[in-house]
Structure formats: structure tokens, C-alpha cells
Structure prediction request, 480 residues.
Amino acid sequence: MFLTFVHTLVALWLAIYGLNSFVLAFLYLRHRRTVASTSPADRSILPAVTVQVPVYNEFHVVERVIDAVAALDYPRDRLHIQILDDSTDETAQLAQARAALHREQGVNIAVVWRPDRCGFKAGALDWGLSQASGEYVAIFDADFCPHPNFLLRTIPHFLARPRLGLVQTRWSHLNADYSPLTRAQALAFDGHFVVEQTARNRAGLLMGFNGAAGVWRRRCIEESGGWQSDTLCEDLDLSYRAQLAGWECLHLPTVDTPAEIPPQIAAFKQQQARWAQGSVQTLRKLSGSILRSRRLGWRQKGMALVYLSSYMAHVLMVVLLLVSLPLLLVPDPTPLPLSGLGLMCLGPPLVYAISQQQLYPDWGRRLRVFPLLVLVGIGIAWCSVQAVWRGLAHWGGTFVRTPKFRLEGSAGRWATSSYRLQTGSCIIGEIALAFYALATACTAYALGRYGLIPFMLLYAAAFGTVAGIGLAQAGAPHRT
Prediction:
């Protein structure tokens, strides 16, 4: 029967993503001691570096990031800082005043303005590059606070490896302890940067640039086709094009760069939707080049395609939910193949557990937020489905930045900011899917199909949790 075939196919496809987590965990454990080390470079031979900070309406954090990049420990005559400001609010005035203050102290810093916002972040980076003087380009988003020794810990790797095009560092967190939601996101980021990125890089697989807290060799950017805005993940797109062209990438999990985690569920969903749309566009754009590449082996090609298509997992989860109820109503139904899927669901927890154990002495306590991460990770699926559809149907799109509020530790407020997001229409679909999952669970109970009930209850709890957080934050006049 057609529905049974669809259900089986979707379950097996989802199992591939779970298996991918197991593979990355294994590769990390196998290569975790393969450390990329290099000797500190003589300051007299350090090359010229341009630091770029793309900014759009970030008045809460723009002064903080300017102070952080101005404090970078690097020879002043070889450090050029660009604040790439596309802002339309008071951010522009704050940036100009702060940059002027640091110029008076001898810092080579400029606020670069362009006549329109064409190409969004990719356009700003490309515009800045045309006016940059550095042989290397470090990129930070507005909410990042790099440590003063960031360049001294990254640039020497380029000097030792002439084909090294990109160095990516690990994102750490300024406000992980702000709320359970930010702690859950921190857990997800740690799994990605500690285990997944490290495993890909050290096992010879393709890895992506994460858009900030990294350094590029300028020649690599230019020879790989430059920044392009036909996807909303210009970072992922360029890093894959660079590796297809023969450039090397390096991930440094021991070098961290603190950044702010969005405290609002609407902001988190918006961020994930942008990444979902952009990664699917990158998949459409580069899958042919990946498959035809003579530089890559079948293992590299397969893992690259799984990575680029990872947000398809949300589409598959929604499809699996929607077909479960009609399958239950079919006479003489075939048992639904969910046992293998359940086993593969253990892959992501393994990744997160390893990352916490590697980073924190109190890693067990930090894992307590994992159930919330599971619920949120599933519950945002409806927004991701819409984003994936946009990525499949269109090129480019509007780059909607994730609002930041200068939250540090557990301090700070966001609910009264003009950058606060509205709840959005996704919540309607989330509520509908929660009730649909409950109806499916009730039907399964009535028909004696008890094995399906835990999965349906998990769906209901996930969509209900995300919708509930959204409604609570929409009505809260104070910190949530």
C-alpha cells in the first residue's frame, strides 16, 4: 500500500540522520587527540588582517562588539577593522561614535556604509572586501566578543599551511544560564562545535563555515567565487565551494569565541528557519558539483549531502506524523517500522553527552536540559518545513537577522526591546499538529496499537511546548 511505503521510506530516511550522529560521535572519539598545533608566530612577520563586523540594527550590542575587536592583541600597523553597517536605526550613530573613540586611541577602524542593502550579509562582506587591506579576513557577527588573543591563536595556522583557506573556532556562550531555553540551545551548539565539526574536519570530511568567529585567507575567498547571495547561507555555500576548489579548512574547538544565544523562542525559530532555507538552497546549488567532484571520495560526498540536507529531517518528521493516523485506520494494517527509528534516535544524545563531558566538569548537570532540547528540536519542525519549501522553490530571499539584546550570564532584559519579535503564524500549525498527534495517540490506544503511542505523545508534547513558550513569551511584559 502506498501509505505504508511512504511511512517506511520516511522512517528509513530519518534513521540515516540518526546513524549520521553515531558516525560523527565515533569519528570524534577516534580523532579527538589529533590536535592541530602550531608554534606562535614572530610578531614581526605577522601578516595584515582585516576584521569585518557586519551589522544591521544592533544598537544593544554594537558598542560591545566594537570594543571587543578594538581590543584584539595584534600589531596595530597590520590590523584593519571594518564595521559593515547597514543599519536604519540609531545603531549607525552609536557605531560611528564608538569607532571614533577607538580611532583617537590609534586603532585603524572604520564604519563602512553602502548605498543599499543589496545581498544582505553576503553583499556587505563582499563590499567590505573590495575595500579591505588585509591578506586575511576575520569575521564576527554583532553579538560576538572575541578574546584579545583570537588572531594570535588562529593566524599562525595559515602561515604553516599555504593551502589553508579557512579557520573556524568554537562558539561559546555569553548567556547560556539566562533561561532553560538558552541552556538547551547551548547544549545543541556544543554538540555541533565540539563533536560534529571536529569529527568532520579531522576525518577529512567537508565542513561548513558557521558565519562568524572564523578567519579566511583572502585569496581563498576570491578564487572560490567570492561571497554570493543566491542562498541565505552564504557562509556554508562559500566554504563548500572553497573545499571543492581544493582549499583546506581547519576547525579549532580549543579556541572559543563567546556569543549571545537568542532568549526568545520566536527568534530561535526565525534563526533556524533561515539556516534551513539557506542549507537547502546550498544543497540545490552544489549537489551536482559534489557528486561530480574528482577530489572527493564517496564517503566525503555522502556525508556532505547528508549534512546539507539535514533540515529535511524536520520535513520527514512532519510527514511521519501526518501519515500515521490514516495508516491506523487501514483494515489489517502492517506494523509500522518504528523500532529501528527509535534506536537511531540515540545518536544525537550521544553527541551532546560527549560534548558536555569534554567541556565541563559538571557535564551531568548540564545534560538535564536535554529533554527540553528534544521537545524544542521537534517542535520547531513546522517552521522548518515552510523554510525548506522556500529553499526548494526560490533562490536567495530576505536575510532576517536574529535580534540580540546584550544578555550576559543571567542578567539582562529583552521583553521591552523594540527588537522583540512577534509570535508569528507558525504557532497555528504547531497547535494543530499537537492536537493531531494527540488524536493519533488516542486512536492507537483504541485500536491496541500501543507501540505508536510514545512517539505520538512526544510529538504532541514537542509542538505543544514550542507553542506554549511562544504564547507565554508573547504575553510576558518581563523576562521569561
